[in-house]
Amino acid sequence: MLYGFGFLTAVILINILKYPFFEYGTRYAAGTGESLIDGYKRLGKWAIISYFFVMIVSLFFVSAAVFNVTAVFMKELFQLQTIGYSTMPLLMVIGSCFVILAVGKFKFLDRIIKVVGLLMIGCTVLAFVLVLVKGPAAPSSSFVSPEIWSYTTIPFAIALMGWMPTAVDLSTWNSLWTLEKQKASGYKSTVKQATGEFALGYWISAVLAVMFLTLGSYLVYGTDTLVSSSSADFFNQVIGLFTGAIGQWSYYVIAIAAFCIMYGTSIGVMDGYTRALKRTSEVLFYKSVESKDTWYLAALIVTALGGFSINYVLSENPRGFLLLVDIATILSFLFAPIVAVLNYKLVTNKEFPKEHRPNLLMRLTSLLGINVLILFSVVFILYYLGLFD
Fold first, then answer.
1. Which structural domain range is residue 100 located in?
2. Average pLDDT along the chain
3. Bigger pLDDT: 312 vs 223
4. What is the torsion angle, in degrees rounded to the nearest 10, for the CA atoms of residue 63, residue 39, residue 374 and residue 27?
């Protein structure tokens, strides 16, 4: 919204460069019958410990950010501002997600993600088509186009690419969910089938990202609208992107759809981190690595409490909402090179079946992606140290 189509190329490129590392999660699980986390242990203790550190830090901040946004959407949609206890919407989101996963587990998650995904695609495509027909908003006479190629945009660029389409360390979830899906359905898909299904979903999300960028560029860029640090205003700005294209009559339809999308995301994030924490703990700290439901419940409690605790600590900060989102996205980007290297090593070493290894193009894209992720991480660290001033 702030830079119009200025970051369109970056959005497209980061989706392309990150793709192999997510695909490797599905590829490795389908090709070996074990998760990436088990594979990290095979690379050496240094690898599994590195991932454990990345996962723990990411767990608290990323889950906290997603829970926070979902709670904001719930509060604004259901007008819960008058509740005496300010954290009640957050507790309702985390508590209900906890109960759903503790009782329903993967089968419920799989169903809700499909329904929510279709809802998101339908709303975004409709708004995208209508905004193209309507055309861009008239620019304000006082508008000055921001400088994109400037060191001051580095934090924004890093945050944008950190969660575009999502954090690389979440690639372990692909492997865990691939195995769980096979277990739940009783059908073991081939590597080609599993990676093909993943690729379809991934590239649909990439196209939706471009559509959403177009909405912001057409409806906000060039106007006097500023992205608010207030969580309530942020919710209305997001909904406004869609109602500005579809019409004000659609406010509640879009608001409900947005809440459902974020609620489904909260369930997915809680389950993903829970499974990652559970499996990493089993592999690292227990001689027997057989899966136990009690360990899932224990990991679920840690994930829920962790997300709530970070939100509670930042609740008194007037910029707490944006600060939380910035921390989560920046950490995700800085951790990306570590997980990218681990994933690449797993699917290219001699222990991985030769017939399932990625082709030359995929390997070259991976190497380019690793170098780009490292380069941007170094640039951000130098910026943070004040070496660009």
1. 8-384
2. 82
3. 312
4. -90
